[in-house]
Every structure is written in structure tokens, then in C-alpha cells.
Amino acid sequence: MFNMANLTPAEARKWIREGKWSKPTAGIANGYAQANLAILPKELAFEFLLFCQRNPKPCPILDVTEAGSPIPRLVAPGADLRIDIPSYRLYKKGELVDEVTDIQGLWKEDMVAFLLGCSFSFENALLENGIPIRHIEEECNVPMFKTNIPCVKAGRFEGPMVVSMRPIPAKDVVRAVQVTSRFPAVHGAPIHIGDPEVIGIKDIHHPDFGDRVNIKPGEVPVFWACGVTPQAVAMQVKPEWMITHAPGHMFITDKRDEEFGVI
What we know:
The chain is globular, with a radius of gyration of 17 Å. A hairpin with a 2-residue loop joins strand 3 (88-92) and strand 4. Strands 1, 2, 3, 4, 5, 10 and 11 form a seven-stranded antiparallel beta sheet that branches. It is built from six helices and eleven strands. The chain starts with 8 loop residues before the first helix and ends in a 7-residue tail after the last strand. By secondary structure, it is an alpha+beta fold.
């Protein structure tokens, strides 16, 4: 069986661009950072930039494009954000109206694209430390949940933080915190460990985004801030339009995970 983990970023993006891969990108091009996408009109770009600056855990900025340009020059200058992501979501006035695999026909000259750090980027480090990643094992999307944790407001942008959850063996929780703390540019350390109700999650088996995964005896649910937060914000703020990645379907950058790590 072909191993998608061994692809280079350019190869992985080519597979995506040609329609050969439409599933979540966890475990693809291992060792390279992945990113969340949020595209807004230029008139809202400064407010969203300020929102990200005030909320670095869920919205760590990796790159921002020039208005009208689909090329992320800092993290993948040979890429095209209109066609290099497996699935996109289109929101109009806060409502999800479509999910597509190509946004070339939607692209406008006033669009500004934000690439935000993704927790998929530290999963390789967890695996190298012998810590299992359940959604990779079960070949599904990571479970994501809206919380009762409010983001810091910036202009018109406000809303709840979204988190991703990974079941971690109790004996490995401290190590998981240590490992992910080294990657603040891709969400860093967990924001919560244990009882999901404390952060407003009523049913751990029914995520708001992504897929349910099994939590085995002796495992603890661990929650990281998530770059799907802008989608929850879009639902609340209701901008005229906003384009994002579909949850779990990330942009694969040319940057190594370790380039975003700290000693």
C-alpha cells in the first residue's frame, strides 16, 4: 500500500490538486507543518489579524497573503491556495452554504488568505515519543468541539474557542504536554486535560466537527486549541462571506515541523 506519510509537501499538494486525495490530511507528508485556512475580504483583514494576535493559542499566524494573491510566499511559494487543499468551506453571513474542492472560480482581487498553525504539525513529534494518535490509527478525522472558553474580541470578531481532542494514555499525559509545548506556533501545550464538561463539552462522543474516536480504558481526553476556531467565529459574527478549509483538510506547507519548535 502506498505510504502517504513519505510524500514531500509538493508531491502531497500535487495529489490534492489532481483530485487524488480528498480525505483529511493527518499523517500525510510527515515532518512538515500543516495549516488552517481563513480567507476574508481586505476590508476585514486587519480586524481578523488583530483577532489572531489577541488569540494566539487557537489562531497562531504562519503566513498572510498579499490582497488578491493565492500564493503563501513565506511557507510555500510554489503553492496555490485555491487548489492545494482537499476541501474548502464557503460561509455566507455565518451560514455554511457549500463545500468544494476548488475555489478558483470564487477568487477575487480583494481576498486575503490567512494560514494558521495546525496541531497536526506536532503529531509526528508525539508519535516519535511513542504516544498514539487515535484518529490516525482509526483513519478518520480528529474530533473537534466548541467550548465555553471565549476568545478575546477584536473589532467585529468574537466567539468561542474550538478545541481538538486526542485520547492519551494516562502515563503519557505529562510527556504529551512537554512535547507539544515545544510548538507554540502550532497551538502548543493543551488548554485542558480531563473532564470535558469543565470547558462546556456535554458529550465527548459527539464532536461538533470531525469524527468520533474511541477512548480506551486508562486513557485521558486531552484538548488542544484548534484552528477551526475561525469557523465558529464566522457562525457568530456572520461576515458577508468567508472561505475556510473543511475541518481536518489542511494546507501542507514546505516548512519542517521543527522550524516551528523551540528548545
